[in-house]
Design goal:
- Belongs to the SscA family.
- It is a single-pass membrane protein.
- With 40 residues, the protein is mostly helical.
- The chain has one domain.
- The chain is built from 1 helix and no strands.
- The relative contact order is 0.10.
Length: 40
């Protein structure tokens, strides 16, 4: 079962959306994880 990044296997677009939302969640919630040094 070989699925490349350019070939949608199960739900490629949905998986990409999940990744984007996860990155946004990390950026927005960075203060909660002490990524920004108490400057929020």
């Amino acid at each position: 079962m070989e699925c490349g990044y350019s070939v949608p296997c199960h739900r490629g677009s949905g998986f990409a959306i999940i990744i984007v939302l996860f990155i946004l969640l990390i950026i927005i919630g960075a203060c909660g994880f002490n990524f920004c040094h108490d400057e929020c």
